[in-house]
Amino acid sequence: MKYTNYYSSPLGKLLMAADDIGLTGLWFENQLHYAYTLDPEHQEKELPVFNQTKQWLDLYFSGQTPDFTPPIHMTGTPFQTAVWNILEQIPYGQTTTYGDIAAQIAKQKGIAHMSAQAVGQAVGRNKISIIIPCHRVIGKNGTLTGYAGGLDKKTALLSIEKII
Predict the structure, then answer these.
(1) pTM of the entire predicted model
(2) Nearest-angstrom CA–CA distance, 26 and 57
(3) Of 21, 42, 44, 57, which sits 20 to 30 A from 142 (CA to CA)?
(4) Which pLDDT band holds residue 32 (cuts at 50, 70, 90)?
């Protein structure tokens, strides 16, 4: 069974989704790919994972670096999972590029080249906004590109982290 709950952030309402293992989704309301993996049969409910996620988000939006991560249960293709694992390693207050992630994936696979565009598509399908920090991925020349929640939210998140 999937469960949902909501969090009111300074940047808008967030939908949280979880199963019995952990958080499965965290989307800005009406963002691109909003709740695209949420089962039609789900129930709004208070769960410990939602309370932990709210606590994490409270710390984050107050400008603090959370020192814990709520339980997460991400599912996707092997390629998506590899990209999302790299996203989780981007330190608070730092950025990386789609090309850098593509180079890491290529190295992991033992191939000469990986498409930054393919990486961008996997980044865009990240189901857990903010906690899995896809907002920290920028274009190779430092431009702010591609954020499912909108570039205004990406800018605001990077500002919270004092990146811009």
Answers:
(1) 0.93
(2) 11
(3) 57
(4) confident
